[in-house]
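Researcher: Re-running this chain for the archive, since the previous output was lost when a drive failed. Same request as before.
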Amino acid sequence: MTQVKNQQKNGTVKKVPDVKAKVTKPTTKTVVAKPSLEERIQKADELKSLTMKRQRTIKTLHHIRTFSFASDDNCTLTISDSERQEFETSNSNLINMLKDYLIKVLSDKVSELDEEILAFNL
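Model: Regenerated structure tokens:
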């Protein structure tokens, strides 16, 4: 005599439902409050401020990039503070290094502003 398993009939296995059913947590819908008109205007102003800052930075960057001189040119760099103290140099190597540094800093700032503008949410 051949014993037939309870789950098997004519060579096929019956699927027995799993007793351990998944327990799902009730979903809570978060209601996103629509921003008020004043909040939207404030956000738009913030975005405008960021874009204007980017434009000024690009303008300064362009101005510095177009500034050129040769080592034999008579070039002077003067930096003055609020107390009218001044630092002045005509060392073209120092001036060129400062120009290169400013170009790098301003380029990085433009990239940073680009990312901030792209990530901005109204």
